[in-house]
Amino acid sequence: MNITADIELRDREEDYININPLQTAGRTTVEARKAILSYIDGYSVCDWCKGALCEMDKLPVKKFLDEVSAFLGMDASILTDGAREAKYAVLHAITSPGDSVVIDANKHYTTYVACERAGVKIYEVAGSSHPEYGINPDDYAKVFEQVKAETGALPKLAILTHVDGSYGNVVDAKAVGRICRDYKVPFLLNCAYSSGRMPINGRELYADFISSSGHKSWAAGGGNVGLLSISEGWKGKVFKVSGKYKVKPLEILGCSSRGSSTLALMASFPHVKERVKNWDKEVENARYVASELEKIGLVNLGVKPRQHDVNFFESEILYRISQTHKDKNFFLYKELKDRGIIGIKAGLTKNFKLSTYGKTQEQVKHLVWAFQDIVGKFGK
Predict the structure, then answer these.
(1) Which CATH number fits domain 30-275: 3.40.640.10, 1.10.3430.10, 3.40.630.10, 3.90.320.10?
(2) Which pLDDT does position 379 carry in this prediction?
């Protein structure tokens, strides 16, 4: 068997309009692709290493991280292998097994898993029901009081999913941050679907910690890379180093992402800094898609008006078509692909999510036309 021959070259970004929410804001720049090729071999970023990746200056990692901190309105940043590792690093550094932590109902599964791994007791802020699935910031105060009543102490950490990956709901992080500040509960803002896509200032949001995803929202492609940014007062605990190996940060086990994904993150950063300035346009495109698709019978879930590029739809009409179409539930995937669109998972018709991040107005209009054409053709 020739494994190399069996690996199909990927052409989604070049040949299709990709609307996969996991990938739209992770698409790499030309500069990043060049950097990836140059640093693809081994621990290539270690060519100039003096012991600590995040302190490297010949390859300007330290300069990059300083700029990231300023960009996010935080005081210090470090590379991680993803947003999940960033969250766990904070949990491990400032909690002990048995402590209480408050999270939101729309959390990514890795938030829950990180809490489980840290051995903490999990309290959850419930979301609203169908069709909004929203998070009310005031409910954080209610859950804090519940924790205090049940345990005799306030939680050791509160985590908020700034934007959830299912419905694209943007929570008022500043309101949650203010509550955390009033209760003196440390506040971790998970920005996997926000930082790198939209403007973020952690200082203004009262965030003590921000976790970011390189592959989801910082144009760093498919490599495992993320960022943990913190306020000054937490450096001693969260960025503490080994007692024996004095330059190795404990919470990322010395060094984190050591390959081409770090270079992709760095090389795409100038582009990321510029594109967040166009966030209003991204929201406008998302609202346009939501409005037009509802006109043909789809139902847009989530808090309205839309504030993010991720849209979730329920579609009884497309599901009904799939029941009699020759391709059954794979018909939508195939029909969209025939029209130059990819990114909705094969087999989904009754409900699905999509993202228009980074798409031109022409591409957004083509996307809407494609759905209109499919419903017009098969929905009679």
Answers:
(1) 3.40.640.10
(2) 79
